[in-house]
Design goal:
heterodimer; A: about 280 residues; mainly alpha; globular; B: about 250 residues; alpha/beta; 7-stranded mixed β-sheet
Chain lengths: ~280, ~250
């Protein structure tokens, strides 16, 4: 028999689940992975069926955006640096992956408030579906980006071996940020404005439009490099433009930052799991 | 609380002891938590394998909170609640997890998966679902194109196929129009007559008497009685009569 004893309101387990938090996460991922993948697949399928061009848009949209960037920055504005468009597009593509996933995941739990009054589901499922479907679309964008780079005179190199690692670190960071925002949003809807503003601000200071290493040494530069996204964009540019392996310091910093943040967000997600339906009742 | 034991040798699969559930009330411009509210104060009963247990309670008695506790949706704040290992408790819901842009087919599979069945299990039963819901080719259309009747039929067909170990039924489910209503009522009756473990929650004692041998009466978050349905009915009727008499006395 499984007993839920309440002491200070801490939720105990209902079904036959392990008690150790790490084992519990493994258990949940295993048990619910079919739902997560199926739901992601179903929503992507529905999206493609809705639009006339279907999945072609996943490739067409980044192509159109790249042409737009090139037209504005290389033709109209004629930026002094010849590779500015490539420089900009790289910063933009990887930033967009982060920004669009966080924004898309924000309402993922809140929008399921009604469903969550009817059945127990671990809340992480919903932001996870958003993260996965955005990741899939990002893969299409990345494919277009790489083709564009190769055409522009930046072919693949040995440094590409580091790319999966940097992508994995960014994915960890995306999950780490998406989980808490998906939790906070339905409880404090005002947080949406705060988070959107924060994202906009981050975009301006993450070195998408300028090169962080060229900043004059001082407090601004120090603060610039506290931001893990600034490091990530630097690393992507090292790999894709300079054909160099990313700086070890950047790798270590972003990996540690993402890991710690990830552990915190998993802990938070577990903590609020059976409390959220009570809080969502008032919506 | 009055407890009258019957069939004590039937194996118990679910037990509640002195369970309480608290909500924090929010009001005001800044939504500060100023008051606590105990939706359930002291609930105790048990559920046995293969029985249809009736839970009788008027609106505001705490029925929907109790259902959420049983289904594992919310945690309890006091007392203890145990369920037999690997028994899945679920409220019989129509269209659980239905998403408008997805087709009827995808929704049926997804809904079944949310209820704990595997994708293969649901895909193997999709033909039965199409047949019971009488949707035909519409099954592959997005459900935002469905009428409410079609949605209900699909929801019911899926709920029947994706049943869980312990099923909670909130009020008598009479769904759909005319002929489908008969079909669905028949299906529910079949469930009740079977060896399935069911909990029927209703404010209507007649419904409970129709389907249950044992009942629990809940009033204002507290268990008042548990036992054979006749005895619980008697106690409940007495309580109602007392209330009426009291009303008559205070208003005359």
């Amino acid at each position: 028999m499984l007993t839920q004893e309440s002491t200070t309101g801490s939720p105990a387990e209902h079904f036959s689940r392990p008690q150790n938090p790490f084992a519990l996460w493994i258990h949940d991922f295993r048990r619910y992975r079919e739902i997560i993948f199926f739901r992601t697949y179903a929503s992507l399928k529905a999206e493609t069926e809705k639009a006339y061009l279907g999945y072609v848009w996943w490739f067409l949209e980044p192509v159109v955006n790249t042409i737009l960037f090139y037209t504005i920055f290389a033709i109209f504005l004629k930026h002094q640096s010849p590779n500015y468009v490539v420089f900009l597009v790289i910063g933009f593509v990887f930033w967009e992956w982060f920004q669009s996933t966080v924004s898309f995941s924000m309402p993922s739990i809140g929008s399921k408030a009604n469903l969550l009054q009817l059945i127990y589901l671990p809340k992480f499922i919903f932001p996870m579906c958003s993260i996965l479907s955005n990741a899939w679309k990002f893969v299409c964008v990345l494919a277009v980006l790489l083709v564009y780079l190769w055409i522009s005179g930046f072919p693949p190199s040995v440094a590409y071996l580091a790319l999966p690692l940097v992508l994995a670190i960014q994915l960890a960071l995306i999950i780490a940020v998406s989980f808490p925002t998906a939790i906070i949003f339905p409880i404090f809807p005002d947080s949406q404005i705060f988070i959107q503003t924060l994202l906009r601000g981050l975009m301006l200071v993450s070195g998408i439009f300028f090169e962080g290493s060229k900043l004059a040494p001082g407090p601004a530069k120090t603060w610039f490099y506290v931001n893990p996204i600034a490091h990530l964009i630097d690393m992507y540019r090292s790999i894709l433009i300079d054909h160099e392996f990313p700086a070890l310091w950047s790798l270590a910093y972003t990996a540690t930052f993402s890991l710690i943040f990830l552990v915190f967000s998993f802990w938070l997600m577990r903590k609020v799991d059976r409390i959220m339906p009570k809080l969502l009742t008032r919506e | 609380m009055s407890v009258i034991e019957i069939e004590p040798d039937l194996k118990t699969c679910l037990t509640l002891k002195n369970v309480g559930v608290r909500y924090g009330l929010q009001h005001g411009q800044f939504r500060k938590k100023t008051k606590e509210f105990w939706a359930l104060k002291d609930i105790s009963f048990d559920l046995r394998h293969g029985e249809t247990l009736g839970i009788l309670g008027s609106n505001g008695a705490g029925k929907s909170t109790l259902l959420k506790v049983l289904a594992g949706i919310i945690s309890i704040d006091r007392g203890s609640f145990s369920v037999e290992d690997n028994m899945h408790v679920q409220l019989l819901t129509l269209g659980l997890g239905f998403e408008a842009p997805l087709s009827g087919r995808l929704n049926a599979v997804l809904s079944g998966m949310l209820l704990g069945k595997s994708r293969q299990y649901m895909e193997a039963r999709i033909d039965k679902i199409i047949e019971f819901s009488e949707l035909g080719d519409f099954i592959d259309q997005p459900i935002y194109t469905y009428s409410s009747g079609m949605m209900t039929r699909l929801g019911f067909a899926v709920a029947l196929e994706a049943q869980c170990d312990i099923l909670l039924i909130d009020e008598a489910l009479s769904v759909g129009d005319g002929h489908f209503q008969e079909k669905s009522a028949g299906a529910i009756r079949q469930l009740m007559d079977s060896q399935k473990t069911l909990v029927l929650v209703s404010h209507n004692i007649i419904e409970i008497r129709k389907f249950c041998k044992r009942a629990v009466w809940i009033d204002q978050g507290v268990t008042r009685a548990m036992g054979p349905v006749d005895e619980v009915h008697e106690l409940y009727e007495k309580h109602v009569q007392d209330k009426i008499n009291h009303l008559v006395r205070t208003t005359s």
